[in-house]
Specification:
Length: 310
């Protein structure tokens, strides 16, 4: 990944007097042209790197700006390792393994134990307890298409299961609430779309390249929008589902109701998603108010019961 490569390059330049472009290209398994672009990025970030030509030439950080390796504190190195280690659990690939190894190699021996201790204080694992079909091949395919600016063809299912054939230009991979999405410009819709990976099937990289368009990142924070749409309903829950209900609201919404129950002011929108949330609590949750939502819950329960009466 580019950020990891840039951090590693800075560390190498801090540690050594001069490094050749081809040596860096071989080390990071990229082209010399990519290394030159990375050097430009490092310069724009305020770290002056200059190139020297001829025998023994290469890149070096200008001596008057030379920084000591200790510019990266124990906390800095721990944060880098923590991020790379967590990311490697959900996006596998040689580039992450190599980045981890290279960053670790820059840790002074006297600080290795302290850095390792701090890096292991937080462990981020977003893989589900019980996984769906393996998404790794699809993730690797999208990563390749992103890197090479190639079109992707696939079938996409809507929430009702209806599939349509699509072709799209990939722009970004997104991990949101343990679910993978990818943003692309859909040729069928002539617009940018956020595709859910679990609804994507028969994914294939096309030979056709595309010229990246100007685009904005997809909107992922709907807190303000939901606040205007949600209303509070009154539900009574058993203590056994309290932890699950806390996924959707906070402690301040709870008030005790006897020894084994709580009254909860639950945020709710009248759509399928929120009704399904209430039903997921089973007989441990009763909707009390408003009455029209309680009546709708009752109607849906009768429909479910009718399926088993036939």
């Amino acid at each position: 990944m580019k950020v990891d490569r840039l951090v590693s390059m800075i560390m190498i330049l801090l540690d050594r007097e001069r490094v050749g472009a081809q040596e860096l290209a071989d080390l990071f398994e990229v082209s010399p042209r990519t290394i030159y672009r990375d050097i430009d990025t490092i310069n724009m970030a305020g770290i002056p790197v200059r190139g020297a030509s001829g025998v023994g030439g290469g890149f070096e950080i200008m001596q008057e700006y030379k920084l000591d390796r200790t510019v990266f504190s124990t906390a800095d190195l721990s944060a880098i390792l923590m991020g790379l280690s967590s990311l490697s659990k959900i996006i596998r690939g040689d580039e992450l393994v190599n980045a981890l190894a290279k960053v670790k190699s820059f840790i002074p021996a006297g600080r290795a134990k302290d850095v390792a201790l701090k890096a292991n204080q937080i462990d981020i694992d977003l893989n589900p307890w019980m996984g769906n079909r393996n998404r790794q091949p699809d993730l690797e395919m999208i990563k390749t298409a992103l890197r090479e600016s190639k079109l992707l063809s696939f079938e996409y299912a809507d929430r009702y299961g209806n599939k349509t054939a699509r072709t799209a230009e990939p722009y970004q991979l997104v991990l949101k609430s343990s679910q993978w999405y990818w943003q692309g410009y859909c040729h069928k819709r002539n617009d940018f779309r956020l595709f859910k990976l679990s609804r994507t099937s028969n994914l294939q990289i096309q030979e056709e390249f595309f010229t990246p368009r100007d685009h904005q990142k997809p909107q992922l924070d709907f807190t303000d929008i939901l606040a205007t749409m949600q209303t509070k309903i009154k539900i009574r829950i058993h203590t056994s589902v309290r932890d699950r209900v806390l996924d959707y609201c906070t402690d301040e919404h709870f008030s005790p109701d006897g020894d084994e129950h709580y009254m909860v002011r639950f945020p709710f929108i009248e759509n399928e998603y929120y009704y399904n949330i209430l039903f997921s609590f089973g007989d441990k949750c009763e909707c009390l108010e408003p009455l029209h939502i309680r009546a709708e819950m009752k109607r849906r329960i009768h429909e479910i019961a009718a399926l088993y009466e036939n």
